[in-house]
């Protein structure tokens, strides 16, 4: 099942857990409203409109707060912490920190256990018909 991500030119981001309505400036997580300050929502909206892209601290400070280049502040860190708190146990899943650089919004991905992925890949591998087994003391056939 792939999420129906919508961003940039539409008014919503949608996946099985998170809905962001950019026009109404609201977010829902697992069907419940997410309580965010206006700036925390603006931060979430900016990140979600650029899924998978690394957004530098400077860009976020400029685009969300209007700060000029070279401004050093902990404002962004405080708002990221509030945003993650609002997103509950999904906070670190959706908002990834790239230490010393910035942040990245990670869209929802269905979790596939490692074992299941390996079995699936093995089942899709072509059968070459050249299976040879060697037991202790036997020669290869």
Descriptive account of the structure:
- Strand 3 and strand 4 form a beta hairpin.
- Helix 1 crosses helix 2 and helix 1 packs across helix 3.
- The protein has a domain of 94 residues: Winged helix-like DNA-binding domain superfamily/Winged helix DNA-binding domain (Arc Repressor Mutant, subunit A, Orthogonal Bundle), CATH 1.10.10.
- The chain contains 5 helices and 7 strands; from the N terminus they run ββββαβαααββα.
- About 4% of the residues have low confidence.
- With 141 residues, it is α+β, with helices and mostly antiparallel strands.
- The two termini are 44 Å apart.
Task: Please describe the topology of this protein.
Elements: E1 12-14, E2 18-21, E3 26-29, E4 32-33, H1 38-48, E5 55-56, H2 57-65, H3 75-86, H4 91-94, E6 95-98, E7 102-105, H5 114-124
Antiparallel strand pairs: 1-2, 2-3, 3-4, 5-7, 6-7
Helix pairs in contact: 1-2, 1-3
Task: Describe what is shown at a glance.
This protein has 141 residues and is an alpha+beta fold. It is built from 5 helices and 7 strands, in the order ββββαβαααββα.
**Major sheet description:** 4 strands, antiparallel
State the fourth-level CATH superfamily of the domain at 12-105: Winged helix-like DNA-binding domain superfamily/Winged helix DNA-binding domain
Rg is 22 Å
Strand order of the largest sheet: 1-2-3-4
């Amino acid at each position: 099942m792939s999420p129906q991500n919508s961003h940039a030119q539409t008014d919503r981001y949608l996946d099985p857990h998170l809905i962001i309505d950019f026009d109404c400036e609201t977010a829902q997580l697992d069907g419940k409203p997410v309580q965010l300050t206006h700036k925390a929502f603006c931060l979430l909206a900016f990140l979600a409109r650029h899924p998978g892209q690394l957004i530098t601290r400077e860009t976020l400070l400029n685009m969300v707060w209007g700060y000029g280049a070279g401004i050093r502040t902990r404002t962004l860190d405080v708002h990221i912490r509030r945003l993650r708190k609002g997103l509950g146990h999904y906070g670190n899943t959706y908002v990834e920190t790239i230490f010393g650089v910035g942040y990245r919004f990670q869209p929802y991905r269905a979790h596939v256990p490692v074992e299941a992925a390996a079995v699936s890949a093995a089942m899709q591998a072509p059968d070459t018909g050249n299976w040879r087994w060697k037991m202790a003391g036997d020669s290869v056939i």
